[in-house]
Amino acid sequence: MNLLKNQLDLAALVRKQRLNAGPRGGKMTTQTLANLAGVSRDTIVRLERGEDVSFATAMAVLRVFGLGLSAAPVQWPTLATAQQYFKVGPSAA
Q1: Where are the alpha helices (DSSP H) in 1-93?
Q2: Contact of 41 with 31, CB cutoff 8 Å
Q3: Of the candidates 3, 35, 48, 66, which lies 20 to 30 Å from 88 by C-alpha distance?
Q4: 12: buried, middle or exposed (CB in 10 Å: 19+, 13-18, 0-12)?
Q5: Looking at residue 91, what is its pLDDT?
Q6: Distance between alpha carbon 59 and the CA centroid of its chain, in Å?
Q7: What interhelical angle do 30-37 and 41-48 show, nearest 10?
Q8: Model confidence over 39-93: pLDDT tens digits?
Q9: CA–CA distance, 59 with 14 (Å, rounded to integer)
C-alpha cells in the first residue's frame, strides 16, 4: 500500500502507474490517461509535476488504475523535532 502524504507522493504514484499501464507492460501516454480520466493532457502533466489539481481530478485519474484513497494516521514532526533535526536554535553571539 502506498501512503500518500503530499502532492509529490501522488505525482510519483500516478507517473509510476502510467509508465507501467500501457500495452504489454509498456508506458501509457499522458494523452491516453487524460482521455480515460476525462481530463486534459495538461492536467495530467500538472498532476505528475506535483502541482495543484482538484480532489475530483485526482480521484478520476486514480480510478483509471483501479485505485482509491483511504485515510491513515501519519506521524507528522513537531516544531521541536524539526528544530532538533536541523539544529535550529539561538545563535551564539
Answers
A1: 7-19, 30-37, 41-48, 55-64, 79-86
A2: yes
A3: 3
A4: middle
A5: 57
A6: 11
A7: 110
A8: 999 999 999 999 999 999 999 999 999 999 888 887 877 888 878 778 755 654 4
A9: 11
Q: Which three cell numbers stand for residue 52?
A: 495543484
Residue corresponding to grid cell 509510476: 16
Rounded CA-CA distance 87/93 in Å is 16
Residue 21: count of CB within 10 angstroms of its CB: 17
**DSSP 8-class letter at 22:** S
39, amino acid identity = V
Q: Other C-beta atoms within 10 Å of 75: how many?
A: 6
Residue 44 and residue 37 in contact, taking contact as beta carbons nearer than 8 Å:
yes
> Does residue 55 come out as left (phi exceeding 0), alpha (psi in the -120 to 50 range) or beta?
alpha
